[in-house]
Structures are given as C-alpha cells and as structure tokens.
C-alpha cells in the first residue's frame, strides 16, 4: 500500500475518533493549517486532528407577541363564563384571565352569565350571546385609554382618547318604558320639594321667621346660587365651546347672555316696582267717592292727606328701599320661578335623551336636584304675605312640579330624532342655559342673599340663628356644586 493510502486511512481513523470524543467532550484545537481540502489543527498533547467547518443553519428572529398575562391565545377561547359587573361594564372569565364584554346590552334586562361560540374576526374576538347576538370581547385593560364620556344637555362630552369627533346623531338603545315610569318619580319628587315648605308654614306653628324656616330659606339660596354658576353657566360654556359649533367669533358669548339675563331680571323688577308705587300713589291721591279724607300734620308742621306720603322711604321694609306688599314680593318670586322653569324644562328633555349607560346615574342626580330646587322655590312662595291667596301659591308650586315631567315627555317624543350635536340645538340649549343662569344670579345674590343678610331679618339676628343660617347657606352651595359633577 502506498504512503498516500496509509495517510488517508490514518486520517479517517483520526476523524472518527475526534467525532466520538467530540460527542462526549469539547476539544480545544489551535494552530490550524490548510492541507489541500482538509484543515489540520493541533489538539491536546500535540496531536494533529483534521477539522471540517460546518455551515451554521440560518436562524429566523421571531418578534415577541404581547399577550395579557394568564390569558389564553384567542384561537383557544371557545367560551367565556362567570360573567359579572364592574360598575357599568360587564366582564367574563376565560381560563384565568378576565375579558371585557364590549358589545353587551345596556338596558336594564338581566345580562347573560355565559357567552359561547367564540371566534376571531382578524385580531378581534367575538362570542355569541344566548339570544344569538354577537358581542366583542377584549382582555381587561385593553380599553383603559379610551375617552371618559359623560352627558351635558344631551351632548356626550368626552375627555381623552383619540376617537374622531363626529357631529352626526348617535344611535343608542333607549329603554322607553323605564323613562315613562321614572317621569312620575320626578313628578312626585318635585311636588314634595316645593309643597313641603308651603304646607309646613300653613298647617303648623312654624313661622317664616323661625330658625327652621330661615335655615331652609338659606339652604335654598345656596342651591339657587350654585345652580346659576356651577350648573347653568358651566353647561352654557360647554355648549358654546362644542367643536360641532365651530369657533365663536365672539368668545364672551356665554358671559354676555348671562349679563343679559341679569339685566332683564333687574329691569322687570324695577319697572314692576315703579308700577306698584305709581298705583299706590294714585290711589292715595284719589279717594273713592264718599270716602272720608283725614288730614294730619307731618314732621314739618304741614297738613297732608293721610296716606299721601307714599314713597320709597315711607314704604321701606327692614330699613331698605324695596317696597313691601304682596305685589312686589310676588313679582320677585315669579322672576325666580321663570329662571327655574326655563332650565327645568331643559333638564327633563336632556335627562331622557341621555344614553342608557348614563341614564340611571343622571336620574339619581336629577332627583336630588329637583328636591333641592323645590325647597328653594317653596320657601320663597311660603314667605309671601298672607294677602297672596292660597290658590296663587298652589298655582306657582304646581307649575314647578309639572315643568320637568313635561320636558321629559317632550324628550320621549323626540327620542329617535334628537341630535345634541346639531349646531342649532347647541345654540338653543346654550342660550337658554346662560339666560337662566343670569336670572338665577340676580335672584340668588340680590333678592335672596343680599336682601336677607344685608337688609332683612339676618342683619341683626341672634348669633345662634345667624350661625345656623350661614351653615345652611354653605350646605346648599356645597351639595348643589357636588351634583354638578354628574349633571
């Protein structure tokens, strides 16, 4: 055998040995040199080994997929069960993960406890409800970055999120029988609020100057002031700042309308008071035929007709120049009621057109709102002098009792056509809210706050009554302002 053949046999034997040893341990090779097609390397002990380089297989990098911890892959979900509510949203369990039911019904009917037939549409997962409808499910927290939405005057205001703003009418599911039933709840609540002070002062020994009645009246004053600023002024500003209305050319629109409401309220009361003074003066100077006219000397020694000295000073009440009497006081209450009625009509309308997801929350707030406003108006009606007939007092209270349910009835009638994002609707609601705010600012600050504290019974009241009145005033402002978070 030639030397070449012996070298090949020796190389093959060494290669086999290296292969066996390599399967058991790792060898360190160095000083490699190329000998033809074979690479020879020096191993431990100076032994030479043939070495063949192998081509490493191509590796593919797989991008990691973010999966909610504990949630099974979407392809393995066939059903979700153990459904329960977190506040107003339904959640169900699949494996150890919790899923949010995106398309769950929003009515008051009992929600399903299980959804089956789960399947994928692209990256989204859908399941079948017991009634055959299809709902979307998503891992808990997948929609946490969405907008926080609430309703103001029938318009859905959203904070956060990246959804595109739309001014088109939004189709929602409305539970009409529920709205009709709760209309009567609002009716009863309004009646309790407005009639209670009237009945209490009429059929009990509680007088309008008692500490209980004074406290109720100051609570009502706080409610009126808070309603004007926190509810109506704020809502009007939101209306005129709505993106669907576009940019206003006059930025002070809301404040200007509020100022108009204040001025018109002042003008009505001023003209009404001047008219009452004119009528009294005319009657004093024109005695009826056959009436005995008595004369007396005034402080200057001049002889004057009895009753002829009619003027702001002679008619002063509690030391200030507002003329007393049933006519002027009744006029003040009518101005207050006008402001309340304007926005109470809107309250009834916008309560009904709110979506079912927010309706019950808003309803609970409106119940307290109507109760507080009813007490505020009722105390003013009850404080009217006895010369105002009982029937007139009942008529004024009944008007407040009916106005919000009437607004709700109108809302039910236009439920499927109302679009709170329509520019004309926004302008109408914003204008009425701002104008009502102006009326209530005048009544709350001038006729109730300043009149009672600066010129009325509280100017020189005992300390105890003053403290109670002040606490009730603050309570009315605070509670009504708190309700402003939801309505």
From TrEMBL:
This protein's GO CC annotations: plasma membrane
Recorded topology in the membrane: Multi-pass membrane protein
Subcellular location: Membrane
Pfam families per the UniProt record, alphabetical: Zip (PF02535)
Signal peptide (UniProt feature, chain positions): 1-23
Keywords: Membrane, Signal, Transmembrane, Transmembrane helix
GO molecular function, one term: zinc ion transmembrane transporter activity
Residues that span the membrane, as ranges: 180-200, 212-234, 254-277, 394-414, 426-446, 467-486
InterPro entries from the UniProt entry: ZIP
Domain of life: Eukaryota
Predominant place of localization: membrane
The protein, known as: Zip-domain-containing protein
Taxonomy of the source species: Eukaryota, Fungi, Dikarya, Ascomycota, Pezizomycotina
């Amino acid at each position: 055998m030639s030397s070449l053949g012996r070298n090949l046999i020796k190389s093959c034997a060494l290669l086999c040995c290296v292969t066996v040893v390599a399967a058991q341990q790792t060898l360190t090779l160095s000083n490699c040199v190329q000998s033809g097609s074979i690479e020879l390397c020096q191993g431990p002990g100076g032994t030479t080994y043939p070495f063949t380089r192998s081509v490493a297989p191509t590796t593919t990098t797989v991008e990691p997929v973010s999966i909610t911890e504990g949630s099974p892959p979407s392809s393995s979900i066939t059903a979700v069960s153990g459904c329960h509510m977190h506040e107003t949203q339904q959640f169900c369990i699949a494996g150890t993960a919790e899923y949010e039911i995106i398309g769950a019904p929003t009515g008051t009917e009992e929600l399903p406890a299980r959804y089956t037939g789960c399947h994928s549409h692209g990256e989204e997962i859908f399941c079948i409800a017991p009634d055959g409808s299809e709902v979307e499910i998503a891992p808990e927290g997948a929609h946490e970055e969405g907008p926080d939405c609430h309703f103001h005057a029938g318009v859905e205001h959203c904070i956060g999120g990246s959804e595109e703003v739309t001014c088109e009418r939004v189709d929602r599911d409305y539970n009409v029988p529920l709205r009709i039933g709760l209309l009567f709840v609002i009716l009863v609540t309004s009646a309790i609020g407005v009639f209670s002070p009237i009945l209490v002062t009429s059929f009990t020994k509680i007088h309008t100057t008692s500490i209980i009645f004074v406290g109720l009246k100051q609570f009502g004053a706080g409610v009126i002031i808070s309603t004007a600023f926190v509810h109506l002024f704020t809502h009007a500003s939101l209306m005129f700042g709505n993106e669907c209305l576009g940019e206003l050319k006059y930025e002070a629109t809301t404040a200007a309308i509020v100022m108009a409401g204040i001025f018109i309220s002042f003008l009505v009361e001023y003209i009404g008071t001047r008219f009452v003074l004119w009528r009294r003066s005319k009657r004093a100077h024109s005695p009826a035929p056959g009436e005995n006219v008595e004369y007396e000397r005034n402080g200057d020694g001049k002889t004057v007709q009895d009753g002829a000295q009619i003027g702001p000073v002679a008619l002063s009440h509690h030391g200030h120049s507002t003329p007393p009497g049933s006519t002027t006081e009744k006029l003040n209450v009518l101005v207050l009621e006008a402001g309340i009625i304007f926005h109470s009509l809107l309250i009834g309308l916008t309560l009904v057109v709110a979506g079912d997801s927010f309706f019950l929350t808003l309803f609970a707030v409106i119940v307290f709102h109507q109760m507080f406003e009813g007490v505020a108006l009722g105390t003013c009606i009850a404080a009217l002098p006895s010369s105002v007939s009982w029937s007139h007092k009942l008529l004024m209270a009944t008007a407040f009792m009916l106005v919000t349910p009437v607004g709700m009835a109108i809302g039910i009638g236009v439920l499927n056509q109302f679009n709170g994002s329509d520019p004309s609707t926004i302008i109408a609601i914003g204008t009425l809210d701002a104008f009502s705010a102006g009326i209530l600012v005048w009544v709350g600050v001038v006729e109730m706050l300043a009149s009672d504290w600066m010129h009325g019974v509280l100017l020189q009241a005992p300390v105890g009554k003053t403290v109670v009145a002040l606490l009730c005033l603050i309570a009315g402002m605070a509670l009504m302002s708190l309700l402003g978070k939801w309505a």
